[in-house]
């Protein structure tokens, strides 16, 4: 698994490095979306996670959830649009799951994606994400994932 | 010379319209349509919850409806506010790399210290109190919160010039109202205003704003230049208002019935310690706020206000640990009760756990 500045980036996922989100292809054409370890390291300990509601459509490039940490709020953006099929209620109840386990227990939403075949090539596969994330971290002055 | 921030004043607006303008600033900045900007804003009477707070838990909706107070959901985090023409807001929207503040915590500190510096220029000994407040002798005079979206950062603060505590307590579901009713405490003791501190010598709003701009320029190394609101900003604000922020659906997006603050009191040799605690979070596992009062003796008196500030937002499970650490690190002159007594009462108020002696 690639590790960049102490941040784990599993190689079986796809990444939108600019938005610090990951994508996992599920059976039946569904896509699961979450925040990278870099995103939660930047945000700090999460105190709130509010996803869009199940059944609601989201547009590509728009927010699929908001998160809060230390009075800072930010959107989690989805590179792909579609209908929300499921939200992670465990993450709503315990937002720090994203800090503890960003890639498994900390998933955010599952989508029925629209135009996935066109969006997928714009994402970066885990096997090739290291250089791109290193460049992003360097540009942003990001020190790394502590611990 | 450092980066130049445009300065605008959007005047008095309704709460939802003001928050919609926040969204417009963020969108326009992200699109490269506006420069880094400082905005001054004023609210017609409004009760504002933080982005992820429960509306009915925080705001007395019937009272607000009957008294012409608009209910609003902010896009930033933090707690509930009552705002009217007695206070004003100060906001910055800027590129992440415009200021030499690498993390969100650095931004919060930098802006809060700038505001404190500005207020000291008016003769008010204001200080930054981590993580997000500016205080004078332990009493809050300014609260802050932020929003981040890619490379655009947005940070806002309230400046309490004057305040009507009766209206504030009536509009919000806060335990201070209980203290006021029982005359146990000065309901306004936890906040202060420029009018309270400076009396007739309180400067004009223009002078306060000028001092704050000086503080920002000095602390953040920026230059400021007054500019005009653009038609594009108003267009984006109107759209954000009509489509989301101005709608009842958005304001009530997170809503659950009001919950009474937990209460506990302990009478001991060192005096009576009494605490009210409200919890928050999807699992009710964090402290929204704590009020501690009683006839125990402590110096300096601000110690208890600082303790309340330290506990705000803390996990309920960590109450004891946080209180022990606070007293171990705080410069307490004299204290008639022990740290363990405070921990026991606050834990009891938060969880309903029985007290050893009550």
Count structural domains of chain B: 2
In CATH, what is the homologous superfamily of chain A?
RNA polymerase II/Efflux pump adaptor protein, barrel-sandwich hybrid domain
Q: What integer is the average pLDDT of chain B? A: 92
The whole-angstrom Rg of chain B is 21 Å
> What percentage of residues of chain B falls in helices of 4 or more residues?
25-40%
The profile of the biggest β sheet of chain A is:
7 strands, antiparallel
| Main beta sheet strand tally, sense and closure of chain B | 8 strands, mixed
CATH class membership of the largest domain in chain B:
Alpha Beta
What overall form of chain A do the CA principal axes indicate? globular
Overall form of chain B: globular
Radius of gyration of chain A over alpha carbons? 14 Å
- DSSP strand count of chain B: 16
CATH second-level architecture of the largest domain in chain B:
2-Layer Sandwich
Q: Summarize the helix and strand pattern of chain A as letters.
A: EEEEEHEEEEEHHEHEH
* Distinct helical segment count of chain B: 13
Strand arrangement in the largest pleated sheet of chain B: 7-8-9-10-6-2-1-11
> What's the CATH H-level superfamily name of the largest domain in chain B?
Bira Bifunctional Protein, Domain 2
How far apart lie the N and C ends of chain A? 17 Å
**CATH fold-level topology of chain A:** OB fold (Dihydrolipoamide Acetyltransferase, E2P)
